[in-house]
């Protein structure tokens, strides 16, 4: 057998193997979709995003007959509307770990979830929660449980877990500058292997920043609203 003939046979063998693997992959995906196994949600959103009206998220009764009077463009899909849609899909819980939070649109969304009975927990940074325009005080005043990093390092995470199964994570701080000016990204997924480490990390941060652990004598009696609001004053 000539060298050229041998190379040809090896090449054809490799091609056949590649096609077999791809065919097997296609077959498995088809079988999974037939049996109702959809692949988990995976979405990437980039910022900055165009400034558009988002009132329809908060006033769903806005119609063609009574349109929103604001001068912003309406009916456009942007990365912010995508983020709001994912956020407002929460029906049971929202665990939010955020370094800087000054976006009023996102704050309104969190308050709306709270008003719907969604259990909201927030972990944030103790310095950045006090900056001008921070929404953390507004959330606390609404009765939302907020804890801040007790250590000397920044609590620099930016992630949210919705209903324990949908993860939003990336570089985006929840600030107007990040949404409208910065180059930022977020990834949204329901891939369990990615969501689970974040739910564990949130619980770890929540427990380790419990004021009762750090200031046991300052803790008010359990069962009171003050107890739920934690011991640090609103900012
Ligand atoms: Zn409008």
Automatic annotation (TrEMBL):
Pfam (any one): PLDc_2
Xref: InterPro entries: PLD-like_dom (IPR025202), PLD_domain (IPR051406), PLipase_D/transphosphatidylase (IPR001736)
Keyword annotations: Hydrolase, Lipid degradation, Lipid metabolism, Meiosis
Domain spans labelled PLD phosphodiesterase: 151-178
Catalytic activity: a cardiolipin + H2O = a 1,2-diacyl-sn-glycero-3-phospho-(1'-sn-glycerol) + a 1,2-diacyl-sn-glycero-3-phosphate + H(+)
Stored SUPFAM superfamilies: Phospholipase D/nuclease (SSF56024)
Lineage: superkingdom: Eukaryota
This protein's record includes keyword Zinc-finger: no
Gene Ontology molecular function, alphabetical: RNA endonuclease activity producing 5'-phosphomonoesters, hydrolytic mechanism
Gene Ontology biological process terms from the UniProt entry: lipid catabolic process; meiotic cell cycle; piRNA processing
Record-linked PROSITE patterns: PLD (PS50035)
Region (Disordered): 216-235
Any GO CC annotation of this UniProt entry: mitochondrion
Family from the record: Belongs to the phospholipase D family. MitoPLD/Zucchini subfamily.
The protein's name in its UniProt record: Mitochondrial cardiolipin hydrolase
